[in-house]
Specification:
Elements lengths: L27 H13 L3 E5 L3 H6 L11 E3 L5 H14 L6 E7 H6 L2 H10 L4 E6 L35 H6 L5 E6 L3 H12 L5 E6 L3 H4 L6 H10 L6 E4 L2 E4 L1 H6 L9 H5 L9 H21 L2
Parallel strand pairs: 1-2, 1-3, 3-4, 4-6, 5-6
Antiparallel strand pairs: 5-7, 7-8
Helix pairs in contact: 1-7, 3-5
Length: 301
């Protein structure tokens, strides 16, 4: 039997969000959250630290979400999710899905200790990081995943000096059950990877490249377009890691068939946050992408 391909026609019609939320216009996270809930279903409990997601959901009794949610401190997301899983085990409700959903700052910086410990312990829940590449909820400050050269409110002149952390690679080094990268521009790929993740026991981690119009300096209507540009230029790769093996997936797997990818300059120049980048810096970024993809092509022979 052929595996059914998820598309807008066969995607479940049931909604787990109330109409309207507090997300900014064009927010990539709002699309991800709606699709993600469709994959997870109603028998789920969310653990969320301070973030854009906290704002987007709102607070009881006028919350946008229909799923139970535990709001916790920045540093304790994975620890709290571990506690929720333990409580459900005691109550013999082990089929209820526990999902930690946090931003890049709350994952790559403040929350990485508890996440690292949860993976090392072999906890059984799904951790989702939506990466909009800065602390957007508090005014666009640089985070560990903010790209080098990005202008933020605390890197105001020539942009961030340091290179960004490769968080999915850091997590994969812990050897969890499953690691996947996604893009808000490809929500059905995200849906499919959630379905796969929740079918597995142990720690699962999904990292999502999530355009933020206000923080990235793009028009609200361009969120999906810019997200696709990052993937198609080979800057952001979509892949899965299982049993230590990394496999390109979704749109990224198709790029292996192309001898030359679109130049990354178009992606960078459409965003005002990269306005401090010089032509030399853009050329260096392009060279890194070219080297990376040449390596991918050699791996597949």
């Amino acid at each position: 039997m052929n595996k059914q391909v998820t598309n807008p026609v066969n995607l479940t019609a049931e909604e787990f969000m109330h109409p309207g939320n507090r997300a900014c216009s064009g927010c990539g996270l709002s699309t991800l959250y709606r699709i993600g809930l469709k994959a997870l279903g109603r028998d789920s409990i969310f653990v969320v630290p301070p973030s854009c997601l906290t704002v987007m959901q709102g607070l009881y009794p006028i919350a946008a979400t229909q799923i139970p949610c535990l709001n916790v401190t920045f540093a304790s997301t994975a620890a709290a999710a571990s506690g929720v899983r333990a409580a459900l085990k005691v109550r013999k409700k082990e089929n209820t899905k526990v999902v930690a959903w946090a931003g890049d700052g709350g994952t790559s910086d403040i929350g990485i200790q508890s996440l690292s410990a949860a993976i090392e312990r072999g906890e059984d829940f799904l951790y989702i990081c939506y990466d909009n590449e800065a602390y957007m909820n508090t005014g666009v400050q640089r985070s560990g995943t903010t790209p080098q050269g990005t202008i933020t409110t605390n890197t105001p002149i020539k942009g961030k000096i340091q290179k960004n952390k490769d968080l999915p690679k850091i997590i994969a080094a812990h050897n969890p059950t499953y690691v996947a990268t996604c893009s808000a521009a490809y929500p059905l790929d995200f849906y499919n990877k959630i379905i796969k993740a929740i079918s597995l026991k142990g720690m699962k981690y999904i990292h999502i490249h999530t355009p933020c119009p206000s923080g990235w300096g793009i028009a609200e209507r361009l969120s999906i377009t810019v997200g696709k540009m990052a993937v198609n230029a080979g800057l952001y790769d979509l892949y899965e890691v299982e049993n230590g093996k990394k496999t390109l997936s979704g749109p990224s797997s198709k790029l292996l068939q192309k001898k030359e990818l679109p130049r990354v300059a178009e992606y960078l120049k459409i965003q005002s946050r990269f306005r401090a980048l010089s032509e030399q810096q853009i050329a260096e970024i392009q060279a890194e992408i070219d080297t990376k993809w040449e390596g991918y092509r050699q791996e597949v022979g």
